[in-house]
Structure formats: C-alpha cells, structure tokens
Specification:
The chain has helices at about 195-200, 205-220, 225-235, 240-250, and strands at about 5, 10, 15, 20, 25-30, 30-35, 40, 45, 50, 55-60, 65, 80, 85-90, 95, 105, 110, 115-120, 125, 130, 135, 140, 145-150, 155, 160, 165, 180-185, 190. By secondary structure, the chain is of the alpha/beta class.
Amino acid sequence: MTKIHPTAIVDPQADLGEGVEVGPYCLIGPAVRLGAGCRLASMVRIDGPSEFGAECRFYHGAAIGGDPQDLKYTGAPSKLVVGERSIFREFCTVHRATEADAATRVGSDCLIMAYAHIAHNCLVGDHVILANSANLAGHVELADFVIIGGVTPVHQFVRIGAHAIIGGGCRVPKDVPPFVLAAGHPLEVHGLNSVGLRRRGFSAETLRELQKLYRIFFRSGLVKEEALERISQECAALPEIEAFVRFVAHSERGLTR
C-alpha cells in the first residue's frame, strides 16, 4: 500500500507505484513516475518528466529531476530516467536533459552519495558509485561499475570506461579508459583496477591479458595508434580487450595516460 505523509505534497498527475512511501515535507511534481517500493525520506523534491524503477531510495533533501543548469535550456519537457534500486543520499542533485528529445539517464544499483551532482544529459551506467560531492558536468558518460572519489569534478563530455576508479579530489579533464585506476594532479593512470576486477569475477586469463594490454598501452612509450596495433597482434581477442580498444579509438577529448 502506498503511504504518503500528511505534510507531503504530491501532484495529482504523479504516478506512484505499489508500496511507495513518501515521507514528511516531500514534494513530487507532475509527470513523475515512481516504481513499486520506492521510498522518500524527508524534504525530498522530485520534478518531472522523470521515471524511476522499483525500489529506489531518496534520502533527506535530495533534489532530483530539476531543470538543467544550462543557459541553452528554454523550458523543453526533457526527461530523467533512472533504473531500479538506485540510492540518492542527502542533498544530492540530478538534473534533466536540456533538449526535449533527450534524457539524463542513471542506471540500476547506483549509489549517489551526499552532495554529489549529475548534470544535464549525463549517461550513467549500472552499479556506479559517486562519493560525496563528486560532480559530473553536462554530457558526461560513465560506464558500468565506475567509482568516482569524493570532491572530484568531471569535465563536460568526458567518458569514463567500465570498472575504472577515480581517486578523490582529482580533476578529470580527459577520457579515462576502462579497467584502470586514475588519480593525481594532473590526473594519471596508476595501474589496473585488479582488486575490483577479481571481486567481480574476472578470470585469471582475462586479468593476464589486461595486464599485457596495460603494459603495451601505458608503459611502452608508443603513440596511441602504434599501441593499438601492437595490442591487436599480441593480446587475445577477448571481449574486454576489444572493449578497451573501441573506447580508445572513439575518444574525442583525449585520453588520461
């Protein structure tokens, strides 16, 4: 059964799924769709158009689905789309896209910690963690299982590949390839995310091939095109190797190395 606190304000056009709980002083606007079992703590504001999968959780003061902080925005009914079981902690902010036919997207099983920000037109994969006060500028793309440390700003249009980890307090001005650890000032790659990859079930063979790829691409001194050619010759044709090569080949902002 849906539970709405007497002090909460829920627009009649909002669509609340079975078992949704809305706490004190929350505000839910029109064109908001909350999946079954979503829970809002207190003073949460959700604007639309926005859609949320089942069992998402919103903590005190979270502001989700607001207008983009973009001077080009002219009031278009853009969207925010969120998967299932994602968690939005205290005072985090997530904004809709700028254009009417576009959406900001956050996947399933994500953890957006306190005061973190996801700007307009961002595409965030599944199992992503943004630590406290991490900030994504507009059009940032995070693949699955990315972790970003606290107080870390990510420049607009930057892409971060799957299973990458970014250290806390580190500015991210360029693309970060998948499977790596990056930190420092300026940001540099400091190795594979080996612990995370093992925890997620990557095989010993895959880890060996990724280590070989890492040495070729980051430690051989070769330019990008030469490194990719050598990887194609010396590394096994595994999906992870192919994913790395595709990411690097399509980088437009330059690569963190």
